[in-house]
Design goal:
The chain is 66% helix and 0% strand. The chain is an all-alpha fold. The chain has 2 domains: 61 residues; 110 residues, no CATH class.
Length: 240
Amino acid sequence: MTATPGPPAGDAIAAALLQITRHAERLALLDDREAQHYQQITERLREIAACLSEMSTCVDAAEGTITDQAAILASLDGLDEQVAAIATQLAELVPADGGNQDEGGAKPYQPIPTPQWWKLERDGRAEAIARLRAWVEMIYLPGYGRLAAMLAPCWDHHPLCLYTLDWLAELWSVVHLTPHRTAATLAGQSEWQTRLLPAAAEQMLMETTKCEHTQPAPTRRPAVADILGNGGQRPQRPAT
């Protein structure tokens, strides 16, 4: 028997090269696919990193808010004690038994009801203003120097001055007409004079500065006839 001749050597090499080419194309497709997957994974990781960064910012902001709230709560610590201390001082200034006499028989000053300036008319308004004017003339102007001198004469025409002088006068009476002077009374007197009075005087000065009551009346320009005289005729020059 004779052997069957195989394919030519050239055909075998061509077939092998074809196989290699196909494998190379498949590898290239796999590479492209993996590159796409890698790009997608990278983008996804970036999104996750951005989300984590935002979450970190939110957490930091929440921590700052918690810290601020803790500071606020810490500042409120002891507030009830401060309120109780103020209530005690007020009780010493104005006893809770109202107008009852003390051991010496003197009555503590009780503030009058608040004047309702916005609806007071005629007699009621005039009476309330007269009470303030008496305090201004007897206590305020003689006793408080340059601060009192800042009060304009037209103060009774300005509602802001009426409101201000009312509480100034009443608070002055509370801290100065108390029968027995205590440490709380002394503190109230110093507070009235060093902090409340300057602020009130400045407010009333700003209110009355350049108001229509303080502006000088416009002067009448003299007429030509008044200047010339002689019935409005220019004087004749004497003949030479």
